[in-house]
Here is the input.
Amino acid sequence: MLYGIEIAHDKGSYVKPDEYHRFNGVLRYSQSNGPNDLAITGIAYNGAFNSSDQIPQRLVDSGAISRFGYVDPTDGGNTYRYALSSRFTHTGPNGATKLNVYGVNSLLSLISNFTYDLFDANDYHNIVARRRSAAPTSVKASSSRIFIRRRNT
Here is the structure.
């Protein structure tokens, strides 16, 4: 059994703290039993953050905000990625058979405020962008068989 965990937090160096929270984890189980090998691995990532985003140069030039400032306190996002994979191998006198299966689920959600070409910094449009893997869960399986011929000498 193998495992690892990382938990992190960073406030950043801007006027509005980034409040970046991150979690990474991995768990792997493997077993070898004679001609059979089995390994199952799970990984997880989750992150959430605030963003100071881009800011209009005219607001910095006018002194309305510092170059480390922000326009909209709701800018930010969150993301996650989870995966599970397994590998099974059977080795016999004539070769080896391998089976690999994995599944992945991921999401990226961003919230941005684009006011860069507007004259009124209070007149803005919030844009929410979400990106998810093509299907909520992607699954793939593959197998291969390798045959070995022995020569009689």
User: Anything to note?
Assistant: The chain is about 5% helix and 60% strand. The two ends are 43 Å apart (CA to CA).
